[in-house]
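Quarterly update, task 2.4: 2-acetamido-2-deoxy-beta-D-glucopyranose-bound model.
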Amino acid sequence: MLHKTLACVLIAILPIVSFADDCRSGNFPVKIARITSSPVKPGQETCVTFVATNSNTITGGQVKITVDRDGSSNAVYDKSHNMCTEFGVSCPITAGEHSLTKCVNVPYEATGKFKLVTNTSKTSTENLTKKLQKMGFNVSRDDIITSLAATRMLVEKDNLKPFLILEPKATEEFDNISVDASRPYDAVVVGLAPSCFHYDKLNEAFRILKNAQAAQRNVQLIAIHRGRYFQDTDDDLSMGPGGFVAALEYAAGVQAKIVGKPNKTFFETAINALPSTTSTSTTTTAAATATESTTIVIGDDVESDLGPETDGLPIERFLVKTGKYRAGDEDRAFKTMDGVFADFAHTVPQILKRYGVI
Ligand SMILES: *[C@@H]1O[C@H](CO)[C@@H](O)[C@H](O)[C@H]1NC(C)=O
Ligand SMILES: *[C@@H]1O[C@H](CO)[C@@H](O)[C@H](O)[C@H]1NC(C)=O
Ligand SMILES: *[C@@H]1O[C@H](CO)[C@@H](O)[C@H](O)[C@H]1NC(C)=O
Ligand SMILES: *[C@@H]1O[C@H](CO)[C@@H](O)[C@H](O)[C@H]1NC(C)=O
Ligand SMILES: CC(=O)N[C@H]1CO[C@H](CO)[C@@H](O)[C@@H]1O
């Protein structure tokens, strides 16, 4: 169901773990002799062989195994293990040199950061967050960047009084904007609003645009996005706001601003909202641990998510064949996609493999 609500996801991949030797103690100096995989691969068993030399008999104890993420002290595995039962030796361990082997499974953990980028204009960010949480996604309001929120920012920045062609749930996003009630409208905001796309409402918007022009007042036509069509709940395509925006442009002789996808500014907002992944270390050896990151856009729309407007952005483009995807869409792409996958569930493991995370 994810693809129906959110057509696009950004993921930044961080480099992966290395093994840290944190296993020394006074009377039982231990050193790592062999690791079956280095760097350690999350989700796979990794066996570590230690060589220990003890001068006295040892009756018991714990060996702590810690796996750190490269360049950070943030442990991805940190557990103590019983020396007598878990290492293939039995206690007491007599004086001398011993080889101890322990296999551990470092849990896979997403090292990527993501933002859900949606051009939804049907529901407020608050409501969308709740909807996703109900579906079981652990997301917070800050993980979601909607074109509706971006439109609000634009309205506030330009201090506009907007006439909204939006579904009631979406108008919530504009609730608290302080505008002088006596001021005439100086903007028309259009989102996906099936219940508003009728002659009377569109004509009201048209008159606002036209009368402002006649009075030589500035007026803006703002499209939350310009989607031609979308995948509807009955699995068929339905008309998006694009055609209605075009109708107002044509009738009033104005050019709409497009805030959501595919506006480059919108993608940039999302990319900039990803946590910075560059090393902040100030030591002179920082180069050795400096982290690299890759930003990936996953989308089902070869034009709006992955289209020419995204050219020049530091991203890789992955198309998923779900939602509004139709056979042959990849042939219309403005450049060869970095990957085309059956669905989101197949995309993520492929990406993680490609970047050596798993
Ligand atoms: C969305 O907001 C409205 C109004 O605040 C509320 O009635 C509705 O239950 C909310 N929907 C969800 C899915 O949270
Ligand atoms: C949800 O995400 C937050 C922040 O990433 C994390 O601290 C928390 O443990 C997660 N909760 C669950 C149930 O995964
Ligand atoms: C409206 O303002 C109140 C108080 O400033 C705030 O708590 C609330 O989240 C705002 N609502 C929206 C939709 O921004
Ligand atoms: C892109 O969005 C910004 C606001 O986020 C807006 O100022 C700009 O006009 C939009 N660009 C186009 C081509 O509509
Ligand atoms: C509501 C709506 O039109 N959503 C569309 C937003 O854009 C994505 C991709 O561009 C579409 O898949 C959605 O249907």
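Highlight for this quarter: The two ends are 26 Å apart (CA to CA).
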